[in-house]
Amino acid sequence: MKIVINLPDELKLKEEEVKTAAIVKLYELGKISSGKAAKLLGISRIEFLDLLGKYKVQINPDTEEELIKDIENA
């Protein structure tokens, strides 16, 4: 699916910034997992989780198994 959004030029936003913000919001709303979000952005899951801090979005484990895996890898 392709979505076209017309934004005013004075916002001076790059397409990648809008895509990233949208994906972060979808994650925040629980619509996609952190792994799926990372894949859509072409970055690692760890990089995506780091990115969430920049957007001030709380990290929520996607599943109990992922939480245990994250704890084990900490």
Distance between the termini: 36 Å
Q: Decide which structural class fits the backbone.
A: mainly alpha
- List unreliable stretches of 5+ residues: none
What's the helical proportion of residues? 55-70%
Give the count of helical stretches.
Answer: 4
Rg over CA atoms? 14 Å
Average pLDDT for all residues: 86
Strand content: under 5%
Explain this structure:
The protein has 74 residues and is an all-alpha fold. Helix content is 57%, strand content 0%. The chain is built from four helices and no strands. The protein has helices at residues 15-28, 34-41, 45-54, 64-73. It is elongated, with a radius of gyration of 14 Å.
Descriptive labels:
mainly alpha, 74 residues
Quick rundown:
The protein is mostly helical.
Any chance you could write out the topology, listing elements then pairs?
Blueprint (H helix, E strand, L loop, with lengths): L14 H14 L5 H8 L3 H10 L9 H10 L1
